[in-house]
Request: fold
Amino acid sequence: MTSTGTSSPVLHGGRRASVRLRDGVVLLEAGGVRRRIPVAAIERVDVHGAGGRRLTVVLTGGGDVAYHLRCRSAPAVEAFAHAVRRALPVRDACEPRPDGAALVSEEPLERAAPNRVRRL
Reply:
């Protein structure tokens, strides 16, 4: 896990995937898509997989919607999960939950053109 200049935690996965927590929103970039997941849409964050290297963000509501990110560093995954858990709203057990999937917004990521150097 790394921190940016604004001190928002960032977790990097494979294939240019990353997840960051910024201003009450989890930003997940993977597969050419940026997903904005408000913490109000998150039911829980799990750490599992081989050696604790997989992060799972489970959304509220009955749809069993979850997003996953695998990272090389188990301590980084645990630290990121802890940061997200601290940001989650405190809820009563019987409090109704919003449909988390309806609160998530998606937008395609713009791919930068590769820099190609030609030798003469």
